[in-house]
Design goal:
Blueprint: E1 4-8, H1 15-24, E2 28-33, E3 43-47, H2 56-60, E4 63-68, H3 76-90, E5 94-100, H4 111-131, E6 137-142, H5 146-156, E7 161-165, E8 169-170, H6 175-186, E9 192-193, E10 203-204, H7 205-215, E11 221-225, H8 230-236, H9 252-256
Parallel strand pairs: 1-2, 1-4, 2-3, 4-5, 5-6, 6-9, 7-11
Antiparallel strand pairs: 8-10
Helix pairs in contact: 1-6, 3-4, 5-7
Length: about 260
């Protein structure tokens, strides 16, 4: 019987794909989620909340490897602290963490920065917690997933005039390809920071939203908006993209073609 691998956030966009791939690889999988659930398809579900640490000890009991996919816009450092504390007590031998390109290069130092870009600070905090944990670790940074790009485009397209931050570029990536890489890393030895994963194409934010608007059969006006703050300046300078790591194969256009684009 293969040793159990814990996937945090295993019911989310990325986590559920990691779980499926681990099962396909013959691994025993446990999922930590807020609500738990009955076991099924060889997957055990444990209820817990990493924000408070509740349920973390039970989730890591008997686990050798953790794939840490749970994350939100803020508080990821605290989640990592609770997870690491439980993992150390349980003798976990490898933590694989998914972070974001730009976590270490986008400065979030002011209220303006934090209001729009706290996500990068939150991921960087979690990175540092895991790095200092004393548990062997691997951290993969990826660019934004297509699913999240689509959510952003849908939300902004509800407006008759869409405000678009000037000079912002993105390099979204297929979440399934990120899941493939995470599983590969989870089944291997700890490596520290590994090479970033990014999608095949860099787009301006306007072009990403405009392509969604066109695919959904909508008509919208676009208004360029300058964004203040050091974090916004770093994004204009490309801190959130990784052209040298354009290893993704599936394009944004291919992803859009598979989606239901009817506005709610």
């Amino acid at each position: 019987m293969a040793a159990t691998i814990l996937v945090t956030g295993g019911t989310g966009i990325l986590g559920r794909q990691v779980v499926a791939r681990l099962r396909d690889a013959g691994q025993s999988v446990r999922v930590l989620s807020r609500h738990g659930g009955p076991a099924g398809d060889g997957v055990e579900y444990v209820a817990g909340d990493l924000q408070t640490g509740e349920g973390a000890a039970a989730a890591v009991d008997g686990v050798t490897t953790i794939v840490h996919c749970a994350g939100t816009q803020k508080g990821d450092g605290d989640k990592a602290r609770h997870l690491v504390a439980a993992a150390k007590d349980a003798g976990v031998r490898h933590i694989v963490f998914i972070s974001v390109v730009g976590a270490d290069t986008i400065p979030v130092v002011s209220g303006i920065d934090r209001g729009a870009f706290a996500y990068f600070e939150s991921k960087h905090d979690a990175e540092r917690v895991i790095e200092a944990s004393g548990i062997p670790w691997t951290t993969l940074r990826a660019t934004q997933f297509y699913e999240l790009t689509l959510l952003t485009a849908k939300a902004m397209a509800k407006l008759p005039v869409i405000p678009v931050p000037s000079g912002f570029n993105f390099q979204p990536v297929d979440s399934g390809e990120v899941a493939d890489r995470l599983v590969e890393l989870a089944l291997g030895d700890p490596q520290g920071f590994v090479s970033d994963v990014a999608g095949p194409t860099v787009y301006s934010m306007k072009d990403l939203i405009r392509s969604y608007v066109a695919a959904a059969g909508l008509r919208r006006l676009f208004l360029p908006v300058p964004m203040p703050g050091r974090a916004a300046r770093a994004i204009r300078d490309g801190a959130n993209i990784a052209p040298a790591r354009a290893v993704g194969r599936r394009t944004w256009e291919e992803f859009l073609a598979t989606q239901s684009l009817v506005q709610a």
